[in-house]
Design goal:
mainly alpha; single chain
């Protein structure tokens, strides 16, 4: 097991994710204080895996409905930054 703490540096995160994937069968990633508008996690994981991000409005809307049905609500930072990308 290995524990690594990284700065908010996209290239560094990508490099560490790729190295972890090469030496491990599973890689667990945790964040800091929660989602922020400048979070790099999604972009870094996609780049490290050579994948493109796709935001699906149906999924986002289902998440919002689920949160409301459970008595909660999503914070502005949870999905708002991506509303312009909904397909």
């Amino acid at each position: 097991m290995r524990h690594t703490t990284l700065a908010d540096d996209l290239d560094l995160i990508i490099e560490e994710l790729q190295a972890a994937a090469e030496r491990s069968q599973a890689v667990l990633i945790t964040g800091g204080l929660g989602p922020t508008l400048d979070d790099l996690t999604r972009e870094a994981v996609a780049a490290a895996l050579g994948r493109q991000l796709l935001f699906q409005s149906e999924v986002a809307q289902a998440i919002e409905r689920s949160a409301v049905a459970g008595g909660g609500a999503l914070r502005a930072t949870d999905l708002a930054a991506h509303r312009s990308q909904w397909v």
